[in-house]
Q: What sequence folds into this?
């Protein structure tokens, strides 16, 4: 079973930027559609961005134009560049396949606050 580890979260002011990373234990990004998900307190987990096996990117409306998903197949890494962050982006962010595997990593906390 593949292991996915998220990192790069933190506390940032509104309007700031963060870059999240997702490390995979084996090569999966070229054989699976992959996504970044987030879960805010009291809310359901939602998909915010995904990238197909062929490299096509897609975004939820709430983040389109602000977030960029990318991957490095050689390093088995996936990234989420988040710009112009808003308080409503505060959540725990997870990477997973799209649709997701049954197991989830620990995620990385993103807090947008002044």
A:
């Amino acid at each position: 079973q593949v292991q996915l580890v998220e990192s790069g979260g933190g506390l940032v002011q509104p309007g700031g930027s963060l870059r999240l990373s997702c490390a995979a234990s084996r090569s999966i990004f070229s054989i699976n559609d992959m996504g970044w998900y987030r879960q805010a307190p009291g809310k359901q987990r939602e998909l915010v961005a995904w990238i197909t096996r062929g490299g096509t990117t897609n975004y939820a409306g709430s983040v389109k134009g602000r977030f960029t998903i990318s991957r490095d197949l050689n390093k088995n890494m996936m990234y989420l560049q988040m710009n112009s962050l808003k308080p409503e982006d505060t959540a725990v962010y997870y990477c997973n396949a799209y649709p997701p595997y049954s197991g989830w990593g620990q995620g990385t906390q993103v807090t947008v606050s002044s």
